[in-house]
Amino acid sequence: MNILAVIMEIEYCFYKGESSLRLFKIITIFIISLGLLTACGNASYKEESKATIKTVNTTFHEKAKKPSKKSEKIHFYLPFGYEINDTTPNNIILKNGSKTYILFVNPQEGPSSEVVYKTTVEQYKKLDTNEKFTDDKMFGYLTIKKLKDDMNEMTVGVGGAKITTQVKTSSLEEEAKAMTQIVHSVTYK
To answer: Strand pairing partners for 32?
Structure first.
């Protein structure tokens, strides 16, 4: 039942002099419906961050995607819809629609290095999510800092490479998967 239909039903009840019980039922259904819509529309940071951590961990342990793009000596995979917007020796600005991502690469640090992770974490007084992932050859991480208006700054890194963007809470998991695929694929030639 949409809002306009409920308002019209209430007006009809007043016009016809319907019983207050029917009017009460209509208003109650409207309020419950509105509450359910509001609850379903807001993603819980706690739930989304848990799902995001799981997705990054799974993607981190998968085989890396084959690099499909290069910028100078840096080779990396880009999912469909992503494009290179600008490059400098250590930063590659990526776009996907209206979203911007910064891919930072320190070629002096290998895939098992924690140097870029440590400097990333030092930038913040407090992170809302700070997870590390390791295997015998790589060190990876996920950091999320909640911002205003349901926005978050998210960074995913592997060794000397990291990618950062701002993302809505409801899109954390989806964005994290693509970001992990990108940063996991980085190689230096």
So the answer is: none
